[in-house]
Amino acid sequence: MDQHAMDRYIKSMIKEAGHRIRNSFLSDISVDTKAHANDLVTNVDKEVEQFFIRHIREDFPTHRVFGEEGFGDNIEELSGTVWLLDPIDGTMNFVHQRRNFAISLGIYEDGVGKMGYIYDVVNDDLYHAIEGGGAYYNDERLMPLFETAINESIIGMNAMWATPNRFVDHEATIRLVHDVRGMRSYGSAALELAYLASGRIDAYISMRLAPWDIAGGMVMAKEVGAVASTFSGGPINLLESDTFVAANPSIHGKLINEYIKPKHP
Ligand code: 2AM
Ligand code: CA
Ligand code: CA
Ligand code: CA
Predict the structure, then answer these.
(1) I want to staple 228 with a disulfide (CB 3.0 to 4.6 A). Which of 89, 91, 143, 246 is the partner?
(2) Whose CA is nearest to atom 9 of ligand 1?
(3) Which atom in ligand 1 lies closest to the alpha carbon of residue 68?
(4) What highest taxon heads this organism's lineage (predicted)?
(5) pLDDT for residue 168
(6) Domains 3-141 and 150-259 belong to one CATH topology
(7) Topology of 150-259 in CATH?
(8) Which H or E run includes 134?
């Protein structure tokens, strides 16, 4: 299948999955917890992941799937074609708000991001990117990010990191809160990366993200010139969870050098 056909195939699968998620609002959703009381998962997360995997296995038997809910393959390296899938990114929002969540999908070949999709299900907004072919908000091509400065930036981050915590020096985070134009906390890493790529926020910072949270967004970020790294400035590893900062290139360095101070670098 060539890349155009693949793009059409993926979009139609994502729209169908979105349709299923919207339909799930009409029936009972069963909510479970995972690692802790606020780490939620529902039957819909699992069913949507299984829906994708069924289709991918049928139509691309040589491809592998790395999905959050564990129905895919056991991925220990990224050779060949790997689909990194988060069926619902922002499950807490899905459960409590019925909005502000997304399907997140990245397609990687030998570890290189080729295609990225983030679907805001309730708003029917699809962000996507093709390596070397640009990033799009629905049919609209997204422009390379304009230069900005910290004092004109809006930063996506969980408010927790401005309170005393084990992970970062919260005094430095408080300085960031003071110095920027505004802070936002949407609760979906994938949507925040789509907002970064479309210039609605200028950076997104998280203590701990998993490969499926960011795989699609990383392809998108690259197409508009955004920069992503760990807090210490290292490259993103798509095999395990780590700290994450993606930003407009004009503020990324300042963010990691002056405002994000990990306690255990
Ligand atoms: P999820 O809803 O798919 O679990 C919430 O601020 C963001 O962080 C969401 O994108 C959420 O994804 C993600 N997230 C929640 N718990 C996480 C964890 N333990 N590790 C990595 N990412 C997590
Ligand atoms: Ca989860
Ligand atoms: Ca997620
Ligand atoms: Ca998820």
Answers:
(1) 246
(2) 188
(3) 3
(4) Bacteria
(5) 96
(6) no
(7) D-Maltodextrin-Binding Protein; domain 2 (3.40.190)
(8) strand 134-137
pTM of the model: 0.98
CA of 110 to the centre of ligand 3 (A): 22
Task: Give me the pLDDT at residue 82, please.
Answer: 98
Nearest ligand 1 atom to the CA of 208 is 21
Q: What are the structural domain ranges in the chain?
A: 3-141, 150-259
Given CATH 3.30.540.10, say whether it is the number of domain 3-141.
yes
Kindly state the average pLDDT of the residues 197-222. 98
Share the mean pLDDT of the chain: 97
pLDDT digits (tens, 9 = 90+) for 5-46: 999 999 999 999 999 999 999 999 999 999 999 999 999 999
pLDDT tens sequence across 102-159: 999 999 999 999 999 999 999 999 999 999 999 999 999 999 999 999 999 999 999 9
Residue 74, classified by CB atoms within 10 Å of its CB into exposed (0-12), middle (13-18) or buried (19+), is exposed
Give the SS3 label for residue 213: helix
Residue 135 Cα, ligand 1 centroid: separation in angstroms?
Answer: 24
How distant, in Å, are the alpha carbons of 73, 138, 149, 214, 255 from that of 153?
39, 24, 6, 21, 11
